[in-house]
Design goal:
Distance between the termini: 99 Å
Strand content: under 5%
Order of helices and strands: HHHHHHHHHHHH
Low-confidence stretches: 1-20, 25-34
Mean pLDDT: 84
Length: about 280
């Protein structure tokens, strides 16, 4: 049989059958259209709830990371952080960077850590900006670059991330990525200290004292009363007994070099600063 005649063997439908076929096509088209419409509505609903859902994934990852309300499980934390991070959740990206840096729930990978940390930093996340600066300081996942490090520290410091303010101060103290400038360093330490950061408080205290065990450039002339003030504030900010004891020893050592008038002046400055901070 000629293949060209195969189609000729198929009987054409009668008008009635043709009408039924046409009606079936219309029913099928309506079914498809309705399905597409439902899918579109569901998609729109999904878009409207995406932010809440992404935030839920991040919170779930945080719970597993901290062991808060759920057993601590870094692998589960990474799973949920990744799900949110892939949808541009900055804090999830930040924590995923931490997990890769520390090998928490994943194989340690500095390159992956920098990748996720940078994504968060480029969205303006202050903690991520500070951590990206650290990566450049240490050369973890990127070439060591002190100028790039202080650039990211400064971005975070301007958002009042105190650890970044300390890092900017350290860069100016030692001329790392920027010209050595102890006055500028003291400015950034002061910003951190005014927010109660323990390292900011100690850095200022040491700059006004002459502790022979601390080899730091001084921003100003010796001022025992000012050093006393900052050591007292550091002692107040310490959270554990060991820290409080160490701060107390610093104050006791400093006091042996001070006159009674200097001690009284240090106490006055301490009370004045504390009162002003509590009022704010």
């Amino acid at each position: 049989m000629n293949d060209n005649n195969l189609f000729a063997l198929v009987r054409k439908p009668s008008n009635a059958i043709g009408n039924v076929a046409h009606g079936a096509k219309r029913v099928l088209w309506l079914m498809v259209s309705e399905t597409l419409a439902i899918a579109q509505r569901n998609s729109l609903g999904s878009l409207l709830t995406t932010d809440a859902e992404i935030e839920r994934w991040y919170r779930l990852g945080q719970s597993y990371y901290d062991g808060d309300g759920l057993p601590q499980n870094y692998s589960e934390a990474v799973k949920w952080f990744r799900r949110a991070a892939e949808r541009s959740h900055a804090q999830a990206q930040f924590y995923l960077g931490i997990c890769y840096h520390g090998g928490l729930g994943v194989t340690q990978n500095y390159t992956e850590s920098v990748k996720w940390t940078r994504l968060a930093a480029e969205q303006g996340d202050g903690d991520a900006e500070a951590n990206l600066g650290l990566c450049y300081t240490w050369g973890h996942g990127v070439p060591k670059d002190d100028a790039e490090a202080i650039k990211w520290y400064r971005k975070a410091a301007e958002q009042n991330v105190t650890k970044a303010q300390i890092s900017v101060g350290a860069c100016y103290t030692y001329g790392s990525g920027a010209p050595q400038d102890c006055v500028e360093a003291a400015k950034w330490y002061l910003k951190a200290a005014e927010m109660g950061d323990i390292m900011g408080l100690y850095n200022l205290a040491y700059r006004y004292s002459d502790d022979p065990t601390i080899t730091l450039p001084h921003a100003f002339n010796l001022d025992y009363a000012e050093a006393y003030k900052w050591f007292k504030l550091a002692a107040e900010a310490e959270k554990d007994e060991f820290g409080k004891k160490m701060a107390a020893e610093q104050i006791a050592t400093l006091s042996t070099k001070m006159s009674a008038n200097q001690v009284r002046e240090g106490e006055r400055r301490y009370r004045e600063f504390s009162s002003a901070r509590h009022l704010n």
